[in-house]
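Supplementary material to the annual report.
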Amino acid sequence: MSIQLTLQEITEQLGGTVTGFEGTLIKRVGSLGFAQAGAISFFSDIKYTTQLHNTTASAVIIKPEHAGLTTLPKIISDNPYTYFARLSQLFNPEYVAPIGVQSTVVIDATARISDSCSIGANTLIEANVTLGENVTIGPGCMIERNSFIGDNTKLEANVTIKHNTQIGRNCHLFSGCVIGNDGFGYAESATPDNQKYWIKIPQIGRVVIHNYVDIGANTTVDRGTIDDTIIEEGAKLDNLIQIAHNCRIGAHTVIAGCVGIAGSAVIGKHCKIGGAAMILGHLSIADNVTISPGSMVMRSIQKSGTYTALMPFQEHDAWLKTAANIRHLSQLTDKMKQLTDKIKSLEETVEKLTSQRQT
Amino acid sequence: MSIQLTLQEITEQLGGTVTGFEGTLIKRVGSLGFAQAGAISFFSDIKYTTQLHNTTASAVIIKPEHAGLTTLPKIISDNPYTYFARLSQLFNPEYVAPIGVQSTVVIDATARISDSCSIGANTLIEANVTLGENVTIGPGCMIERNSFIGDNTKLEANVTIKHNTQIGRNCHLFSGCVIGNDGFGYAESATPDNQKYWIKIPQIGRVVIHNYVDIGANTTVDRGTIDDTIIEEGAKLDNLIQIAHNCRIGAHTVIAGCVGIAGSAVIGKHCKIGGAAMILGHLSIADNVTISPGSMVMRSIQKSGTYTALMPFQEHDAWLKTAANIRHLSQLTDKMKQLTDKIKSLEETVEKLTSQRQT
Amino acid sequence: MSIQLTLQEITEQLGGTVTGFEGTLIKRVGSLGFAQAGAISFFSDIKYTTQLHNTTASAVIIKPEHAGLTTLPKIISDNPYTYFARLSQLFNPEYVAPIGVQSTVVIDATARISDSCSIGANTLIEANVTLGENVTIGPGCMIERNSFIGDNTKLEANVTIKHNTQIGRNCHLFSGCVIGNDGFGYAESATPDNQKYWIKIPQIGRVVIHNYVDIGANTTVDRGTIDDTIIEEGAKLDNLIQIAHNCRIGAHTVIAGCVGIAGSAVIGKHCKIGGAAMILGHLSIADNVTISPGSMVMRSIQKSGTYTALMPFQEHDAWLKTAANIRHLSQLTDKMKQLTDKIKSLEETVEKLTSQRQT
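Predicted assembly:
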């Protein structure tokens, strides 16, 4: 049942060239550190050279310039990590849930569901929902009215899709994510005796997710206030991310875990947003921008590049001094100005003394 | 079926005055940027003047001092955003789930549920739960024993309410939120051979939520250790927020997404906590305090105002220098002291030279 | 039904010595601030002395050196908080869900479930799942194929366990947590016309959770890419935490809410990670390290201690100046060098003048 391929057979399918015994039989992928017999691993950074030397892998995928670092049978590729990804997909085909509707599923009579779909136990599908071909809906999912889910898209267990949501083809939504939740929109009002309180702005826009988008576990994507919140093609979102109302996330942008993107922010294409970074509302970020992890972006970014906002970490006692110094930076700057003035004045006096001396 | 109102009819209901054709027919609300025909939008900040000039909206809600900026029919209001919120509520009445109990719901015989309630599919309601009038419980919710939910309160799909929770009237809880989870309380203990480990402190307090509170998707509010965790009237919480045990959140305070509030913190009324801000445990924050997004609050705040703790963001190379400089701030400060001393000494010497010269 | 114990009976079970009336009857635990009659509280920090003086508790657990601060009956213990934790466990035994399988549960025929287990409503248990003795699975849980859950472990409502997950004995998993979600692994690829896109790395490792581990509400623990993600014995994780693929969390480490730990990070034993702290990928943190709340860890930490990276918070206007000064730190440092040079030059000139004067 399980797959076995020689290095030669692998390169016939995925390209690259073999160095060493072409008949080396590969049964699985493995990490350099813990590979089992029959595993192929990859090497793409010389900081792992020790692991390469000690690996129990049977073969390795490696760049041409690193090929000399090991005597193992190897596949030469300019991009070992991407090659490894494709090879791992080959050895580990995605699990296919059984086609058909499980017991305890509640489906509204007006929903349109292809025969090729798989619907897990205890799932609810409301009125006028449309599912394309080969859609997989995990157990415990709630798909609200008027939503659309495109071909081959897969929802893991316990996903919540709110009404009117549009999801493209070949997307993958992970457990606990909530798509199309009301945005956080309130306007301040006051009672006749001037007691302030908040009134809710109805959130009547949708979430529109294009094709090939992945959305991580427990991530929330809010619906637009009036216009739509949009996640463009090929964007990949990790776990526990908050995408607020009216945002637009550009195509092929990756966003790591714990990121928050505030309302109406527009993120460009091919951006990389590091974990726990935050982007304020109504900002716009150009294409190909990298935001370092943990960095708060407070202004729009017009030009591609890497941007960072992080306090360096220190032992706590050193940090206490640093924090005090930061709090007194203004005084330090003021003092610097005073010193500059004093030096100027001293220089003049000394200049005078010197010239008097010389006369 | 859909609502249509003239500007005059709108002002009869919501106040304000019309400038331009009072019979202008309004069918929907819209954004300045993407309004459809028949839409009314709002304008409250001159930085959107270009959008106002280009808008395809049929009318606009605008402040008296901005009325001259457009020739469109308009409603004059001192607070266009709040006016727009009320008008949007008029055009977009909240969805009303069908009254009654859906199939596949499990309800304990001792639960008290008004006939006016709506209970979604696959929901569980445990022993001694009480639901008031017109309560809506979405599908997939779990309402544990002895909980109380007041009139008109709405739970979206997949909400978890732990035992003994009290929720007031007119609240709105969004998908994936968990209310009344055990707080994170452990005491350090050790085995006879001094191996340290943690023992759990039972969390026997409750969560008590007052009226008109909203709680966002995947937000967690922990039960108190002994006393209760309390969210006061009219507070609004966004998505992915953590409220730890024993906290008290003041009335009408708004908390944006990704915020964490540690145990036993007490937040005042009418505060505004920006996204991803963090408040340490056992602190107390006065009324009317604004915390900037991403700011860590490390001490109690006694007086209203805006507080901030953020590293400015920079291009990565500039930041690298900044970070190095911050790490060396103590040396910079020390050096400044040395220079100050040297200058003082120089001044004295020069003074002496000058006075000698003059004698 | 409810438990009542005299101070003497308590010390017979839990140790410590009584000062004052040994027959004082205790019915419950309470906080110093809000204790009811018959409650016992604890005192371990002199900053709560005022609360101790005003308490309505009937008795108090207190350190020997603080015993003189109150005339109340008391139990003397070196560690009042831990003593209180054990006593609270005694007065508040954990709720035991009814043994047996609730209606509307879907269990695969190949699952192995002990008769001593409790399975809540609307739960799904897939093929080849094994549950040990006295396992409690709350309502709405999804336990995917081939997973194992050890004796006495408890899952609260709405927990998602992905396929092949291993969970030890006496663990406690809270609502909304997602264990074994695919890690966030993609490799960059390009179309023939050089359009970049991301391809998914199959995530074929598992999550392995050792004994006595707690995992908070809406926390996510991702499965390993190839090797396993591991949470060692006795580790305690709070709510809304992200543990990325291939991480290893050391035994008895506590992690507070909103923390993010990036891929392949290895955290030592007995560490304390403060709320909203972030640890970058591939780092390793020694045993007994404390990370302050909100701190981003950017490099490995080899030695135990406390580490911090936080901007001090200030009133917003003061912060604006601080931020500007931080952005200009490089200029400040440069200017400092210029001033140092000038002073050096001045000193030389003055020295010369002085020596000339003296000659």
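Residues 5-91 of chain C form a domain with the Udp-n-acetylmuramoylalanyl-d-glutamate--2,6- Diaminopimelate Ligase; Chain: A, domain 1 fold (CATH 3.40.1390.10).
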